[in-house]
Amino acid sequence: MGDLKFEEFGDIWIFLLTVPGLLFNMVVGLAKFICISLPLTLWAFAQWLGPTLLDIPVILFKTARILVNSGYGLIKGVYNFFVTFDWSWNALNDFPSLPSHIKALLNLGGINQPFDYFAGSYGTAVKEFIFPLRRSMNDLRDFIDFMPWPVFFALVLLLVYWVSRKVGVVVLALGALLFIGIFGLMDLASQTFSLMILSIILCVVFGIPLGIFMSASDAVDRAVKPILDIMQTMPSFVYLIPVLILFGVSPVAGLIAVVIYAMPPVVRLTNLGIRLVPFEVVEASHAFGANYLQRLFGTLIPLALPNVFAGINQTIMMALAMVVIAALVGAPGLGAEVLSAQGTVNLALGLQSGFAVALIAIVIDRSFHLYGERMQQHRKVGH
After folding, report:
1. What CATH number has the domain spanning 135-382?
2. Rounded to an integer, what distance in angstroms lies between the CA atom of residue 48 and that of residue 218?
3. pTM value?
């Protein structure tokens, strides 16, 4: 965490006098990010969005052409299968699978070529679109790296106590931080923290509204659930392929992979929590003249918060479980260290990095579990 060392100041008193200056520099750095970097990023995004909106007819035409080419490739492959298939009793011995040349044609014309065309046509636009994510990751990582380790420890412990309100969890968090620091994993842990913070923010920002839409409409619920099932059950290495094609080997590719893998729990449990709100409570708020937004923010979401936080907790756990796999496409941090240990068959290094990830996951799980229990008790007292 930074380049600060006690011996550079002579004694502890000079170090303590230096802390206010360091805190001032951190505040200035954060203000610079909020007041300068973020507005410039939003302005760059607006400059990209304007011409993009004007190109919507062209984009729709190209999209339609991609869909037509995909449909043509599928139809052509199926037609060639029926034309060339051996329609005889011998065919009953084995299930009628596609011949290799037709399957290759079907994969090429129906999947690979359309996606390659999309990546070639819109790859630059996609990279410009996610440029704010890249800048945010860099700024957040630089901010954490600049922070002296005593300040970082204090902030983490205060946050853990505010969430859990248990001294035992704070002691566990302190032990995790000491373990990470003693084995020289603090810089890697800071990279993992920046990746986790940004990925969880994205999952919450997009996942909770999607869960609300699913709870408000059965049609949206039926349409989105299969997508969530695919996101949760599809082997993660499969969707790393399109992410790698679009974004290359970069931290942003790892971030996108983590978000895809970790978002479903917060969506599902937000939807479930709102649907579990008693019908009588909703009817009572409706009888008092509350509109949908008033019922949503005044009744449904407050009563669904325990489930929502359980979903956020599960999302965090899945994101941490994904950091090692995401390292394959450029995600920095402890996951990359585990991957490096696997490549060099270094058991000690792998155990150290893996145990650090496990400790972080345990602290977060205990903290959010206690926070959910406290909210549940508050809900019972309110009733």
Report:
1. 1.10.3720.10
2. 35
3. 0.71
